[in-house]
Amino acid sequence: MQAVFELRMKKTADDYYALPKDKREEYLDKEIDKMVNDAKDHEDEDRKRKEETTTRNNADSLVYSVERSLEEYKDKLSSSDVEKIRAEIESLKKALEGKDVDVIKAKMESLNKASHKISEVLYKQASATATPGGPGAGEGPSHGGAGATGAQAAPAGDDDIVDAEFEVEDDKKRG
């Protein structure tokens, strides 16, 4: 396709310079109009192709991320859950071999639902290991503000806080 484009551009350039100077502008306008019309004629095809490409890329990414998560956390899942997720992965991979975008989307949705089991098991395990009043309890936006990750917030009456203003002096102003 690139070669066709290059040949067309060379032909266009050769035609352009073969014309008398007063006809060149008219020729360019006709060529531009022709290219714009070609683009409009193929707009639906381009949109469908873009959707297919985006869907395929998203499906590939989903397969990759779920496979990695499954390998990392498979010991925390039941064997039936692992087999179900693997079956969904294979089903999506098989769908990617075909051309039907709707089938790929349906298989992606199915794999997404199956892979939620990994998150569910990890969440349950994390909440079971957290003890009330222990590390991590009571922390959050209301206790320590945004960005407080395990650090204690400073007491409200702490005298070490200094409010100051400063000004940057330019080297030219000093001299």
Residue windows where pLDDT falls under 50 for at least 5 positions: 136-154
Oligomer: single chain
Major sheet description? none
Radius of gyration: 31 Å
Principal-axes geometry comes out as flat
What does this structure look like?
There is one protein chain. The protein has 175 residues and is mainly α. Among the domains are: 1-41, no CATH class; 56-129, Substrate Binding Domain Of Dnak, Chain:A, Domain 2 (Up-down Bundle), CATH 1.20.1270.10. It has 6 helices and no strands. α3 (43-73) packs antiparallel against α4 and α3 packs parallel to α5 (101-129). The longest helix has 31 residues, at 43-73. The chain is flat, with a radius of gyration of 31 Å.
List keywords for this structure.
Substrate Binding Domain Of Dnak, Chain:A, Domain 2, 175 residues, 69% helix, mainly alpha, 0% strand, flat
SSE inventory with pairings:
Blueprint: H1 2-18, H2 21-41, H3 43-73, H4 79-97, H5 101-129, H6 171-174
Helix pairs in contact: 3-4, 3-5, 4-5
In short:
This protein is mainly alpha-helical and 175 residues long. Among the domains are: 1-41, no CATH class; 56-129, Substrate Binding Domain Of Dnak, Chain:A, Domain 2. The chain is built from 6 helices and no strands.
